[in-house]
UniProtKB/TrEMBL annotation:
It catalyses: Fe-coproporphyrin III + 2 H(+) = coproporphyrin III + Fe(2+). Fe(2+) binds at residues 191, 286. It comes from Streptomyces ureilyticus. This is Coproporphyrin III ferrochelatase. Fe-coproporphyrin III binds at residues 59, 128. Pathway: Porphyrin-containing compound metabolism; protoheme biosynthesis. The keyword Cell wall biogenesis/degradation does not apply. It comes from the Bacteria. Keywords: Cytoplasm, Heme biosynthesis, Iron, Lyase, Metal-binding, Porphyrin biosynthesis. Pfam families: Ferrochelatase. It is found in: Cytoplasm.
Length: 375
């Protein structure tokens, strides 16, 4: 038996994710959940609905979360970490409110939240904290005793998040035809967000102009590119680019888009590209449609050899990283001095989001941060 690990004061981990449709009838109600009050043009919604219908109305995200749950439970059991793992979503069943209600009924008092986004941003961090506050308010109105909720720090620079992606890029390079391999460029992709959200992603006091979102992604990209150079002995030029833009056309979002980038690289005589979606923790619809369908079609049209490298998904090294982060945070909360594991220039991200971190357009209560109205 391994030495038992200690999660005290936590008595549960909550995997908090986006959720996705599981069949054609779910697509429209799912999109209504996602876009409620968010001002996304109707045309864009129709288009995104088509992406889901192309895959039978099924998003890959729920099965990926089921696989991650299994990987986490297996890893915790193998390492003697006695901590039940729950799962709740923002936009589809199992809904966060229902899961938190179940957790309260099970007597969970101190919950640690793992969100399926590795970086700071309104969409990837504060919006999840708003979802937690909204669900807690519902439970409070039902007269339930509320658990205290904390959120795990951003894990973009944790070795267990990086290593599976490094391996993925190496595999994609090896998979390219030999005559173009050495000249291949790496295109790291992430979700585009409005420039205004990027600029205020935080904490801004720490990251300054441009905000945390882009800086964190650049650090992750550089770490992967450095490791790939070390391993192959070849310097593959790289750039951070964006995908999955939505919103109204007159509002500036992060650019360039991956498809424009492929065109530019091709025009400059680059012989091959590996697209590495480091902004996504698993092969979401954005990866399956925007990269594997749309960007690959663009590359085909250009006659440019491309490969798309793997996301971390349910890789056992990622599950192990989460276990390490849980044990680390438990020790910190217990007042013990711990070394926080992180690579790169930015160092470990904050445990508790400060007041005003990644602000919303219209302020709303957010739990699991310094400005939480809950204990
Ligand atoms: C930064 C970021 C992440 C990464 C962090 C994280 O993982 O949370 C992410 C994840 C995801 N986004 C997803 C789906 C959608 N996102 C939308 C809309 C938007 N996303 C935004 C940003 C992000 N989104 C933004 C700024 C908008 C505009 C509207 C708004 O300000 O809210 C829309 C509406 C239609 C459209 O406009 O595309 C859909 C359907 C799915 C599920 C995929 C699946 O089914 O596999 C996942 C994992
Ligand atoms: Fe999104």
């Amino acid at each position: 038996m391994p030495v038992a690990l200690d999660a005290h004061p936590y008595d549960a981990l909550l995997l908090l994710s986006f959720g996705g449709p599981e069949g054609p009838d779910d697509v429209v109600p799912f999109l209504e959940n996602v876009t409620r009050g968010r001002g996304i043009p109707k045309e864009r919604l129709k288009e995104v609905g088509q992406h889901y219908f192309l895959f039978g109305g099924v998003s890959p995200i729920n099965d990926q979360n089921r696989a991650l749950l299994e990987a986490l439970r297996k890893d915790f059991a193998e390492h003697g970490l006695d901590l039940p793992v729950y799962w709740g979503n923002r936009n589809w069943a199992p809904y966060l409110t229902d899961t938190l209600r179940e957790m309260a009924a099970d007597g969970r008092r101190r919950v640690l939240v793992l969100a399926t986004s590795a970086y700071a941003s309104y969409s990837g961090c504060r919006q999840y904290r708003e979802n937690l506050a909204e669900s807690l308010a519902t439970l409070q109105a039902e007269g339930l005793e509320l658990p205290r909720v904390d959120k795990l720090r951003h894990y973009f620079n944790h070795p267990g998040f990086l290593q599976p992606m490094i391996d993925g890029v190496l595999k994609s390079l090896a998979d390219l035809p030999e005559d173009v391999r050495a000249g291949a460029y790496l295109a790291f992709t992430t979700h585009s967000i409005p420039n205004a959200s990027a600029d205020t992603s935080g904490p801004v006091e720490e990251h300054g102009d441009g905000g945390a979102y882009v800086k964190q992604h650049l650090d992750t990209a550089r770490l992967i590119a450095d490791a790939v150079r070390e391993e192959t002995g070849t310097d593959h030029p790289w750039q951070l680019v964006y995908q999955s833009r939505s919103g109204a056309p007159h509002i500036p979002w992060l650019e360039p888009d991956i498809c424009d980038h492929l065109e530019a690289l091709h025009g400059a005589g680059v012989p091959a590209v590996v697209m590495a979606p480091l902004g996504f923790v698993s092969d979401h619809m954005e990866v399956m449609y925007d990269l594997d369908t749309e960007a690959k079609a663009k590359a085909e049209e250009l006659g440019l050899p491309v490969r798309r490298s793997a996301t971390v998904g349910a890789d056992p090294r990622f599950a192990a990283a989460i276990r390490e982060l849980v044990v680390e945070r438990a020790a910190t909360e217990s007042g013990r001095d711990v070394r926080l594991c992180a690579l790169g220039d930015l160092g470990p991200s904050h445990d508790v989001c400060p007041v005003g971190c990644c602000p919303a357009r219209a302020p709303k209560p957010a739990a699991a941060g310094a400005d939480s109205p809950y204990a």
